[in-house]
Amino acid sequence: MADNKALRIGIDARVLQDPKPSGIPQYAFNVIKEILKLDQKNKYVLFYNSFRKIEKSLPQFEGNIETKVYHWPNKFLEWFWKVIPYPKIDKVLDVDIFFSPHFINIPLSKSVKKTVTVHDLSFIKNKRYFSLIKNLWHWQMNPRVACKKFDKIISVSEATKKDIINLYGIKKDKIKTIHNGTRRIYNFYENENESVTLKKFGLENKKYLLFLATLEPRKNVEGVIDAYAFVCNQIPEYKLVIAGKKGWLFKNIFKKVKRYGLQEKVVFTDFVNNEEKHALFKNSKAFVFPSFCEGFGLPVIEAKNYSIPIITSCVSSIPEIIKDAAILINPHNINDLSTTILEVSKNDRLPAILKSKMEEINETTWRNCAFQTLNYLLS
């Protein structure tokens, strides 16, 4: 900014209303938390809206903030704003700059400096990975318009940046790539608590393969189950753990496990908190994440922090993020995936080999992500 006065910076914090946060809510929480540590000068105004009383369940932040919670019916509001983009939220909050961690529809005036983060455009490239309701929601949000009306765009990877340019015709100088970060959550937990999590899910140390993400078609959970079914008789000591909350179009995942008769071998944990996530990562034999499409691939970087073997996809943003510190496979090739699972399960030298490559990758932290984001907001 031209002068040195304190600014009021509005943030659309509605993604933080999810009681079981993952992905984008996790991004928003960590970026906001770190920005508030970095910037004690400017005032941050967090915008929430829900017809429910959500005040007691919202995340708590420390710093120079104001929290504004409104109680308009969200569904009505979204449709109303498509017809009448009023009131202008930056005027309601009285802010100079507005940051949206996701392209949720929100009316803003032309005068306010505004930045939006785009995490991926997989819903444009692969509509079949999404339910009718999800596709309808994306249509309603109209991210193309959001990208055009915002002054600046943050892309979480170069792969997503290319999609924004190619699919939406946005000029590249309007987009800045800022990689997501990770937090070394294992610094916060005692080792003895790990056994509680393993016991809860019926697991033994280094005797299971781990998949962790929201259960939805794009994540290729069914492919993981297919590949495991092909080789489980050759590695009977290893279970398959599928951790993550239910997303959409997930029912066939559970049906497939029953068809293979793997109910005793495949463990579904549903949503896991940070302490459980830490225990599952740390004690797994390998992390299996053959996603069809990722804007960034946060679970892969989280797994990297534990120096465990990673089997993941050779597509979209993942090679950019993990480079050669993982075994990259074709997610559409089940034989490729099953063969690799078998190799990782049998090869005790792989962890050390991959760990040396992991150490060559610059550590991605939320503090660095927030530092770049803050500078971009203020520029």
Shape: globular
Total individual domains: 2
Number of strands: 13
First CA to last CA: what distance? 6 Å
Q: Strand portion, in percent?
A: 15-25%
Q: What's the total helix number?
A: 16
Flag low-confidence runs: none
CATH class of the largest domain, named Alpha Beta
Query: Would you tell me which CATH topology of the largest domain applies?
Result: Rossmann fold
For the sheet with most strands, the description reads: 7 strands, parallel
Q: What is the correct CATH architecture of the largest domain?
A: 3-Layer(aba) Sandwich
Radius of gyration, rounded? 21 Å
Helix % is: 25-40%
Order of SSEs, N→C? Answer: EHEEHHEEHHHEHEHEHEHEHEHEHEHHH
- Overall mean pLDDT stands at 93
What's the helix and strand layout?
Elements: E1 8-12, H1 24-38, E2 43-49, E3 65-70, H2 74-83, H3 89-93, E4 97-100, E5 113-118, H4 122-125, H5 132-141, H6 143-149, E6 152-155, H7 158-168, E7 175-177, H8 192-200, E8 208-212, H9 221-231, E9 239-243, H10 251-260, E10 266-270, H11 274-282, E11 286-289, H12 298-304, E12 310-313, H13 318-322, E13 327-329, H14 334-346, H15 350-358, H16 366-378
Parallel strand pairs: 1-2, 1-4, 2-3, 4-5, 5-6, 6-7, 8-9, 8-11, 9-10, 11-12, 12-13
Helix pairs in contact: 1-16, 8-11, 9-10, 9-14
